[in-house]
């Protein structure tokens, strides 16, 4: 399982009331895939944390942040992978 972009808020930041955790089934299935998608997901400021459970048969991507399902799906597609709502 890859865990990336730790949740390190700036001092003085208040948590967003619209922060949510979303899960997606993906084809991100190995360390190389995680490395390929990292710049795209880490580059999105609305994402607080994300991780891919490559041990899960559905390769579940869990994203926490102030972001919509549609935005995450577009980011994953832009990185060259497929995702569907879990």
TrEMBL record:
- UniProt-listed SUPFAM superfamilies: HMA, heavy metal-associated domain (SSF55008)
Entries under InterPro entries matching the protein: HMA_dom, HMA_dom_sf
Q: Which residues form the HMA domain?
A: 19-84
Q: Which domain of life is it from?
A: Bacteria
Pfam families, alphabetically?
HMA
Indicate what this protein is called per its UniProt record: HMA domain-containing protein
Q: Which organism is it from?
A: Hymenobacter koreensis
Q: Give the lineage.
A: Bacteria, Pseudomonadati, Bacteroidota, Cytophagia, Cytophagales
């Amino acid at each position: 399982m890859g865990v990336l972009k730790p949740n390190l808020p700036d001092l003085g930041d208040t948590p967003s009331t619209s922060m949510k955790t979303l899960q997606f089934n993906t084809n991100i299935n190995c360390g190389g895939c995680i490395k390929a998608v990292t710049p795209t997901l880490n580059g999105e400021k609305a994402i607080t944390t994300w991780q891919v459970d490559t041990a899960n048969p559905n390769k579940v991507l869990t994203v926490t942040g102030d972001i919509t399902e549609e935005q995450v799906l577009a980011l994953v597609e832009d990185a060259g992978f497929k995702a569907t709502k879990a």
